């Protein structure tokens, strides 16, 4: 495909003025002495005062977007960096200082490259040792990068002794328009780098500065639906087909909009299904519309386990808000400069790619009883990768996080009896390399409750223990600067410092993967047991656990 550059204000070209000779130099890259296979050769086009850095594919109009070229004025020691982001979008920035500010050390060694006597210089950039070999025999200034371009013709650059770019061919040319590049839309360097970076992947915007709060005045609109007095927001999106062959990442940015406390947050998917009931029924009609789970302790839990006709929430991310970030940054402590926002980023490829090409509801919950609540922005990004993804299947098993807490859904207290949590699944076909994607966090009970006391989680399949571990985080003090409103105690600790049951205020709880091997077709009973602590007065313990069966 040929890429056309539109509306250009500056025209930069290597032109043969009278009989002036221009040069085309080809460079190849090697690593540890081995030439890199199937590489796109670097191409340098140079005259006495102008240099263009390009590649073989760019010059043949075969480059993959985005791509960059560098246009260097060797008389004024300045350059333009030009990026083609799409067939009709080109950006650039100009640098007048980088070449002038290069600090090089000159060494006595010499050697010949392509028959030309070369001298050696070296420098250190970002802890990388760079060796530069250049010649002055052609009365030409050029280089495969801007580094060393004022020395002469650079024929070899080696980084850290193992990564080398070396000239393999020099050609004289006497034709006009040796390499033409036009410049448009000059921006500052940070904007340039940001736009170039973002053009390398697909961004699916989900929420932008949305408030998640507790208010009877919470209103839905054409795109964002609110439930449970505003503590749940939901949006319908179409998952791109490319998702099945891309890495997927979820990004959430959170700030307090009034709430001072650490809260449970969850990002989840509700598929649009004609064959099974989903959690959407409970959101639209109330928790009574969800199937009931009972474990013998006398309580009824709504919509927490899979049945033959019901699919529980598919959790993408479990996150925890810090104590009052941004909203309470006016609290001053010596040597404490509070963060303005907390960013949560997690890979979700194995779950999200299951929904490629489908419409789904994607939602976020933050449990709170504050009218100001929290503000979030959320995106999903898709990144191409040179790997073959095996086709997988996904079966949501259970999710005890009471997403509808502010609409009366019960807490996950079913672990106070021996049965704990139990669900059944019937596999109509064998499942290879099966694993459970398991997220667990303990809550409540104050200092003697399960939030602050390590408790073993045991997972059983058909009555046989397949995995057990004690989820616990001891690094919560690392997040202190995200927690301006965290309570301070006489012992010198803040509330956000204390170790917790697999979470800290201001962090993501990552999934644990439980390998089950190859599962033949048939019915399986999956059970989770946790020695839940007993209530103390009005305080009680609860566990938010979610599980998804994934396999080939």
UniProtKB/TrEMBL annotation:
SMART domains: N-glycanase_N. InterPro entries: Cu2_ascorb_mOase-like_C, PHM/PNGase_F_dom_sf, PngaseF_C, PngaseF_N, PngaseF_N_sf. Keywords: Disulfide bond, Signal. Residues 203-382 form the Peptide-N-glycosidase F N-terminal domain. GO terms for molecular function: oxidoreductase activity, acting on paired donors, with incorporation or reduction of molecular oxygen, reduced ascorbate as one donor, and incorporation of one atom of oxygen. Residues 1-18 form the signal peptide. It comes from the Bacteria. This is GLPGLI family protein. It comes from Flavobacterium terrigena. The lineage of its organism: Bacteria, Pseudomonadati, Bacteroidota, Flavobacteriia, Flavobacteriales.
């Amino acid at each position: 495909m040929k890429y056309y550059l539109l509306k250009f204000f500056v025209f930069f070209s290597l032109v043969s003025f009278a009989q002036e000779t221009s040069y085309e130099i080809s460079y190849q890259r090697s690593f540890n002495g081995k030439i890199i296979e199937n590489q796109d050769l670097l191409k340098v086009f140079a005259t006495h005062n102008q240099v263009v850095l390009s590649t073989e594919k760019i010059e043949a109009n075969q480059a993959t977007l985005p791509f960059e070229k560098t246009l260097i004025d060797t008389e004024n020691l300045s350059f333009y960096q030009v990026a083609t982001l799409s067939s009709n979008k080109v950006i650039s920035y100009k640098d007048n200082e980088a070449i002038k500010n290069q600090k090089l050390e000159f060494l006595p060694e010499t050697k010949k490259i392509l028959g030309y006597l070369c001298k050696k210089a070296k420098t250190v950039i970002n802890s990388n040792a760079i060796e530069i070999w250049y010649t002055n025999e052609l009365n030409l200034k050029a280089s495969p990068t801007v580094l060393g371009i004022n020395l002469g013709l650079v024929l070899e650059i080696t980084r850290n002794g193992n990564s080398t770019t070396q000239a393999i061919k020099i050609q004289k040319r006497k034709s006009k328009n040796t390499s033409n590049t036009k410049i448009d839309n000059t921006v500052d360097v940070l904007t340039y780098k940001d736009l170039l970076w973002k053009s390398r992947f697909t961004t699916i915007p989900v929420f932008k500065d949305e408030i998640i709060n507790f208010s009877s005045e919470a209103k839905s609109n054409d795109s964002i639906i609110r439930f449970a007095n505003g503590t749940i927001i939901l949006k319908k999106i179409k998952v791109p087909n490319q998702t099945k062959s891309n890495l997927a990442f979820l990004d959430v940015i959170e700030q307090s909009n009034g709430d001072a406390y650490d809260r449970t947050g969850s990002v989840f998917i509700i598929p649009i299904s004609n064959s099974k009931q989903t959690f959407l029924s409970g959101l639209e009609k109330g928790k009574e519309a969800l199937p009931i789970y009972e474990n013998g302790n006398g309580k009824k839990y709504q919509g927490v386990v899979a049945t033959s006709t019901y699919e529980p929430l598919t959790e993408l991310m479990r996150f925890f808000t810090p104590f009052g970030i941004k909203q309470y940054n006016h609290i001053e402590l010596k040597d404490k400069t509070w963060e303005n926002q907390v960013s949560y980023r997690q890979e979700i490829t194995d779950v999200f790619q299951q929904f490629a090409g489908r419409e789904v509801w994607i939602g976020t919950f933050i449990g709170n009883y504050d009218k100001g609540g929290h503000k979030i922005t959320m995106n999903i990004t898709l990144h191409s990768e040179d790997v073959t993804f095996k086709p997988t299947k996904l079966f949501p098993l259970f999710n005890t996080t009471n997403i509808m807490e502010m609409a009366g859904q019960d807490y996950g207290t079913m672990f106070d009896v021996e049965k704990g949590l139990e669900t059944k699944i019937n596999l109509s076909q064998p499942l290879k390399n099966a694993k459970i994607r398991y997220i667990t966090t303990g809550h409540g009970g104050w200092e003697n409750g399960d939030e602050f006391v390590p408790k073993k989680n045991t997972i059983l399949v058909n009555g046989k223990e397949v995995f057990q571990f004690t989820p616990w985080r001891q690094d919560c003090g690392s997040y202190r600067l995200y927690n301006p409103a965290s309570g301070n105690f006489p012992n010198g600790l803040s509330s956000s410092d204390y170790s917790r049951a697999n979470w800290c205020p201001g962090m993501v709880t990552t999934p644990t993967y439980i390998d089950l091997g190859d599962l033949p077709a048939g019915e399986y009973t999956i059970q989770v047991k946790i020695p839940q602590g007993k209530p103390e007065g009005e305080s009680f313990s609860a566990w938010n656990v979610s599980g998804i069966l994934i396999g080939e």
